[in-house]
Specification:
The chain is built from five helices and no strands. It has 135 residues and is an all-alpha fold. This is TetR family transcriptional regulator.
Length: 135
């Protein structure tokens, strides 16, 4: 590790301590990665990419020290619930579509297999048969 990398990690850990103590100096004090990056004076993507272990450490400390669920986790849990509901709805719609397709296939088979001697008496006068009546 180079000196800049070591310095960033030190600043991030100090920022964690300030945020968890409720004494922010450079951010809004929320317990998020965005606030942590602002508090440490590092770019948010540097925290996400180069110091992902510190990001996870921060969230673990938030859970342990404040007994709170991090906002990111709350949002993800809501999204999981929403996606599960959407999947359930999608599966129900698929089952309904399959049922309709089966019914249409059966109805088509009945119509194809039904061979009246003469043109179907039940058909309206404006229906033209697909096969000539002299099969």
């Amino acid at each position: 590790m180079n000196q800049q990398h070591t310095d960033e990690r030190s600043r991030i850990r100090e920022a964690m301590d300030r945020l968890l103590a409720g004494q922010p100096t450079s951010s809004n004090g929320s317990l998020t990665v965005v606030a942590l990056a602002a508090e440490a004076g590092v770019h948010r993507m540097a925290l996400q990419k180069r110091h992902a272990d510190l990001k996870e450490e921060f969230y673990a400390r938030v859970r342990a020290e404040t007994h709170q669920t991090p906002e990111v986790e709350k949002r993800l849990r809501k999204e999981v619930v929403r996606l599960k509901e959407a999947l359930k709805d999608s599966r129900a719609a698929e089952a309904e579509s399959r049922h309709r397709a089966e019914q249409m296939t059966l109805a088509a088979a009945v119509l194809i297999l039904r061979r009246p001697d003469k043109q179907d008496q039940l058909a309206p006068s404006n229906v033209i048969p697909l096969r000539p009546s002299g099969d």
